[in-house]
Amino acid sequence: MPQQQRMSRLTLDLDRQQHRKLKAWSQQAAENVGLVDVPMAVVLRWLVATLTMEPDDDEYSLLAREIQRAVLEHLRDPEALAQNRS
After folding, report:
1. Residue 50 C-alpha from the chain's centroid
2. What number of other Cβ atoms are within 10 A of residue 67's Cβ?
3. What is the DSSP letter of 5?
4. pTM as predicted
5. Is 24 a domain residue?
6. How many domains in the chain?
7. 76 within some domain
8. Would residue 17 count as lying in a domain?
9. Of 70, 51, 71, whose CA–CA distance to 61 is shortest?
10. Domain annotation covers residue 33
11. Distance CA 71, CA 76 (A)
12. Residue 1's pLDDT is what?
């Protein structure tokens, strides 16, 4: 029997508006793909996987590069970064 991958828990505090928007997006995504529900955790896991892709990964794409670029650009803005620290 293959060994199960151990998961790590991450706690993320969102303000109410961010939470509502993510929940609404997840619900809309579920409707778009014909599912009853798309858990927000699934969306966030995919975003983390995309953000942490290396250029030599087979699935690395323009989308991954753009997400990484956008996050780095945001991190270069000290004001925006200070607003998002918990």
Report:
1. 8
2. 15
3. P
4. 0.73
5. no
6. 1
7. yes
8. no
9. 51
10. no
11. 9
12. 47
